[in-house]
Structure formats: structure tokens, C-alpha cells
Amino acid sequence: MKVPLLDLKPQYQALKGELDAAILRVAESQGFILGPEVRRLEDAVAAYCQCRFGIGVSSGTDALLVALMVLGIGPGDEIITSPYTFFATGGTVARVGARPVFCDIEPESFNLSPAAVQAFIERGCERRGEALVNRATGGRIRALMPVHLYGQVADMEPLMALARHHGLRVIEDAAQAIGSADASGRRACSFGDIGCLSFFPTKNLGAFGDAGMCVTNDAALAERLEIFRVHGGKPKYYHGVIGGNFRLDEIQAAVLNVKLPHLDDWSAARQRNAAFYDGALAAADLGAHVRTPRTAAGARHIYNQYVIRAGRRDELRQHLADRGVGTEIYYPVPLHLQQCFADLGYRAGDLPESERAAAETLALPIYPELSQAQLRHVVESIAEFCRR
């Protein structure tokens, strides 16, 4: 039996008529940039994320980049974030000339640890006038950038309390977490100054290419985001600031407008698949070999990925490949140990939970259209490896 890590064809076939009609509608209009489809999507996604404003952009990476730009973050500034994440989280900080400061993760959620952030601030920083300064570098700590990894909201209440206490801005990297929520029902992107979303095709809400969005409850920030995404021009051809070309294509917005009404059903199917894995792996009594993901009590995990831990991860992955099961390792090298960040001075052992996650984690197929037979085959293949 073949069980791919992800198969997008069933989703397309189910919506083919609507999707093809939406693309044709844009083609017939010959309006391809920032038109009515984009405006409709911006309003709908903002409301879905419990925010007032949505600003469609060209990718999730560009959403992070333009968020940093509109907050005026640049050389001499530092951003506290997670090292266990996709490269864009740290890469965009470096691209604006700022310095990423990596704090360790919580082992259960894989998200940025509030305790680690607090420890860094208390031990490594000091107040100099209005600024919070990193003693080791002299850089000014300007913002927190928590990541809602794999579809679960980070522990935002203590992170927001730290941000308020120290006068820091908050950019939420919710590339994998649209619709996820904490135990109080508050959704990813609604806590901080700006929330950043990705609509890369593999996401729960995926476009037919690159696409992203910033959402915010701040009208002034929303206006700046709109200006910065069109090279900083307002009115057209008059530039008070230097922005970039971060516009969302109309065709991508049209595709996403068709898909958005189905998002909750798809997320519910991912949750059902995750529950099957949880129960079947527990029944197989594999606890000594495999640890299943943990969800905070009452929280809404939307399972962009279902990630297990295994002490013999690489051997297990090869066994699953031999049995026709697709898997992925997110992320084999944490950001603080990436070669391009060597000048930051981190060493192996500095952030042990992130390094342990990089060595142990493995993502299993979780997409909505998986059959019960496919799910059983995944579990039986894992059990076979563990027994052997």
C-alpha cells in the first residue's frame, strides 16, 4: 500500500468545477493584481482569524518580511524567536539587517518557551533608558516572533505579558496554524501586533502557488502594510518609504476564496486522523519507542503536521519508506546551528530541546483524504519496526 506524505489531487478533484470557474473568471476579467478577489479574501481571512484587517501578500515569507519592515526593525535591532522552525522565521529577521536571538522550545508543543525567553531577558539583558538591550551584543531587543508550529498555538499569555512588560512588539508566525486556537478560543494571529499566514500549497488552506497574508487589529499598521506591499507608494508613484513588491495575485485569491469555506471540515478531518493515530499507537503499546504529539488542554490543534518522536528516527523513516509510507523531517538542523548563522556564535548544546527535536521528530501523513486502511497501514508499519 502507498501512503504519500501529502496528496493534493483528491482535494482538487472534489472542487474542480468551482476552482476552474474561479480561475476562468479572473482570466476573463484580465485583472490580475489586487482586485475584488483579493479584497474578498482579505476580509474573510481577517474575520476567520478574529482580526479587523487582512493584507494579502505574495507569500508567507514576505508576510514576515513586510511585518518587520512596517515596524521599523533593522540594523542594531534584535528579535527573539524560535530556532526550531522553517528558515524564513530567522531568515527574514536577517534580511532586514536585524539579529535573530534564539530561545529554546517547550518539548511537548515544539513552540517557543516563555520560561526560556524570560530567562534570557533576566540574565542577558538590561534596561538602558527606554530600550531593552542585549548585554552581550549591545543590540536593542525590539520584538518577539513566536511560531505556532505544526498547527498549535504557542503559549501566548505569558509571552504577551513579557512583551507588554518590556515594551516589545509581537509578530506571530502562523504560517502553519490558520484557525488554531488556545483553550479560551482565541485564534492564532489575534494576540500580537501582526499575524503572518502562508497559503503555500501544502498548508491546510493552500493556494496554487505562493501566497500569504498579514492580519492585524491595528488600523495604522494595516495602512502601512498596504503601502509597503506596493513599493511604499501612496499615492501611486509617490514614495514616502521604501517597500517591496509583496502583492497577492488575483488568481491565487480566487482559488483561496473557493477553498476557505471548506477549511474547518478539512481541519476536522486532520483532527480525526490525529485521534486515530493517538489511539492506535497507544493501543499498540509503543510508548517506549514512539511519542505522539501533545495538545494543550482545550486548545484547537489543526495538525498541519502530525509529528512523532522516535529515538531511532532515521531507521524508522527508512522502514516506513520501504513500506510505502511517506514521511518528512521538520527540521533536521535548528536555525542556531545553520551555517549561515554561524556568526551569531551559537554552539551545539546551547538549545538542547530544539536540538533534541531536530534529532527525534518525524512527520506522518495527516492530510484529510487519508483512508482508514492507509492510517492502519502507517500504524502497523510503525509497530512492525518497533517490535523488530
What is the averaged pLDDT score?
97
Evaluate the radius of gyration.
Answer: 21 Å
Elements, N to C (H/E)? HHEHEHEHEEEHEEEHHHEEHHEH
* Global structural class: alpha/beta
| Fourth-tier CATH superfamily name of the largest domain | Type I PLP-dependent aspartate aminotransferase-like (Major domain)
Which labels suit this protein?
about 400 residues, alpha/beta, Aspartate Aminotransferase, domain 2, Aspartate Aminotransferase, domain 1, 2 domains, 9-stranded mixed sheet
Please outline the helices and strands.
Layout: H1 9-29, H2 36-48, E1 53-57, H3 60-70, E2 77-81, H4 88-95, E3 99-102, H5 114-124, E4 125-128, E5 131-134, E6 140-145, H6 156-166, E7 169-173, E8 194-198, E9 212-216, H7 219-228, H8 250-259, H9 263-283, E10 290-291, E11 306-310, H10 313-322, H11 352-360, E12 361-364, H12 372-387
Parallel strand pairs: 2-3, 2-6, 6-7, 7-8
Antiparallel strand pairs: 1-9, 4-5, 5-6, 8-9, 10-11, 11-12
Describe the structure.
The protein is of the alpha/beta class. It folds into two domains: 9-261, Aspartate Aminotransferase, domain 2, CATH 3.40.640; 262-387, Aspartate Aminotransferase, domain 1 (Alpha-Beta Complex), CATH 3.90.1150.10. The protein has twelve helices and twelve strands. The strands form two sheets. Strands 1, 2, 3, 4, 5, 6, 7, 8 and 9 form a nine-stranded mixed sheet that branches. The protein has a three-stranded antiparallel sheet with strand order 10-11-12. Strand 5 and strand 6 form a beta hairpin. Helix 1 (9-29) crosses helix 8 (250-259), helix 2 crosses helix 8 (250-259) and helix 3 packs across helix 7 (219-228). The radius of gyration is 21 Å and the shape is globular. The two termini are 20 Å apart. The mean pLDDT is 97.
